[in-house]
Amino acid sequence: MLHGAQAGVLVVSARSAGGQRDEAGITLFAVAADAPGVVTRDVRMLDGQRAADVLLRDVRVDAAAVIGTADAGWDILEAAADYGAALLCAEALGAMDALFGATLDYLKTRQQFGVPIGKFQALQHRMADMYVHLEQARSMALLAAVRVAEDAREAGGGNAAERRRAVSAAKYRVGQAARFVGQQAVQLHGGMGVTDELPASHYFKRLSTFELTLGDCDHHLARFIAQPGFIDGEVA
């Protein structure tokens, strides 16, 4: 759980009815972090941010702790996760944009054989590939943000299916781009790309963590494929 050890209240999802994989039967609870039976272990992630392993042992709460309606927390949980994933896509886009700019500046200033290494055509091609990934990620991140905003704005609930499709497509495409742009930037910086002295290594670590947060590329690809309308003839 991100920043779980610093939180005063934890939102806990628990199965209160139904089978293991049923969407119905999930209830959300607001649990005080210092409640008896709650144990958190603070850890530092690859990118320097904080997370926590949370263990619940015989934790008891009253009815007032239920968020929303009992047995109907899945839709809230999924919408919140999609909202978070869309925000993460926007953050990753900003990190990639900054990393691309830093790499371009490095190629213009780092010299080899008496000329800036940005003069070498092979490195120009790699920068062009990074730019394509960046712009495709930008388009998908914007689409996800629009769909999440539309879903939240519409009275009585928006189009959840469109939100799911857009968010999973964006998380997958931005995740691919984050990996490609991050790895290329580190390689183009050479050995300096993995040192703490340059921003490149910090952006790379953050992008690596992004891809694993709120579902990795494989998870969101499978989720996108599972949405109604993906297969020809299927009704959305």
Q: Report the radius of gyration as a whole number of Å.
A: 21 Å
Total helical segments: 5
CATH C-level of the largest domain: Mainly Alpha
| Parts with pLDDT < 50 across at least 5 consecutive residues | none
Give me the CATH architecture of the largest domain, please.
Up-down Bundle
Name a few traits of the molecule.
236 residues, two-stranded antiparallel ribbon, 14% strand, Butyryl-CoA Dehydrogenase, subunit A, domain 3, alpha+beta, 2 domains, Butyryl-CoA Dehydrogenase, subunit A, domain 2, three-stranded antiparallel β-sheet, 52% helix
Summarize the model shown.
This protein has 236 residues and is of the alpha+beta class. The chain is built from five helices and seven strands.
Explain what this protein looks like in three dimensions:
This protein is an alpha+beta fold and 236 residues long. It folds into two domains: 4-67, Butyryl-CoA Dehydrogenase, subunit A, domain 2 (Beta Barrel); 74-226, Butyryl-CoA Dehydrogenase, subunit A, domain 3. The chain has five helices and seven strands, in the order βββββαββαααα. It has helices spanning 74-109, 121-153, 160-189, 199-212, 217-226; strands spanning 9-15, 26-32, 38-44, 50-56, 66-67, 111-112, 115-116. The strands form three sheets. It has a three-stranded antiparallel beta sheet with strand order 1-2-5, with no helix packed on it. It has a two-stranded antiparallel sheet with strand order 3-4. A hairpin with a 5-residue loop joins β3 and β4 (50-56). The longest helix is centred in the middle third of the chain and has 36 residues, at 74-109. The chain starts with 8 loop residues before the first strand and ends in a 10-residue tail after the last helix. The mean pLDDT is 93.
